[in-house]
Please model this.
Amino acid sequence: MARLAALALVWGSSFLLIKVGLRGLTPSQLVLTRLVFGAGVLLVVVVARRLSLPTDWRMWGHLTVLAVTANVVPFVLFAWGEQHISSGLAGILNATTPLLTVIIAVVVLPDERASFLRAVGVAIGFAGVVLIIAPWHSGGAGSLAGELACLGAAACYGVAFTYTRRFVSGRGSPLALATGQLGAAAVLQIFVTLAAHEPSPHLTTKVVAAAIALGAVNTGLAYLLYYSLIRDIGATSTAMVTYLMPIVAVGL
Model:
């Protein structure tokens, strides 16, 4: 329980760190820093444990898809969205990930069945999303766009979870696969950032500390904690962290 609370604290604080990092970095620059430090931490652990990265090119293809859907796109969407909405609201919208995952899994995975109770749950969930966004009280087009960007990021996570279950899960060391995924994401983000021709960053102590912590702790070390929880208490129990993260995000 203590580790689950720690993971909720780490991941829930990510939204505030993003907000601080955006004071001196563009969304693309912040995501690049996050991915480089996150992949670096995992690579050190993989080397220390003498694990091997995947050698199958087909697996690297799957990891590249996950790098896009689970890291590059959602990370950029959350960072861009938080330019227009609060970090607490971003954390709340992130909690729609299980709802969106259910919808995607029912459509894509043959063993996932739709049922009356699931349909009712999805309907209630979407009603909650509408109440949270409250478009009739919207703070403007920018605010609504920020909220939709965060929902889009949550949908990307739903796609990534479904894709992982179908093509990646159980086909190697989870830690080695996660390292390969973050490494691929970091390489892709380098090209994205270079192609964007963005302005020079405005670095302060707080901005640098937030960006490094977001990568090394909230991405790299959080992955280690996440996989240790899955190993010890199972994926279903670990998924409860999604419902604890908004409490942390709003509180911070």
Summary: The mean pLDDT is 88. The first helix runs from residue 2 to 12. Residues 97 and 154 are 5 Å apart (CA to CA). The chain has twelve helices and no strands.
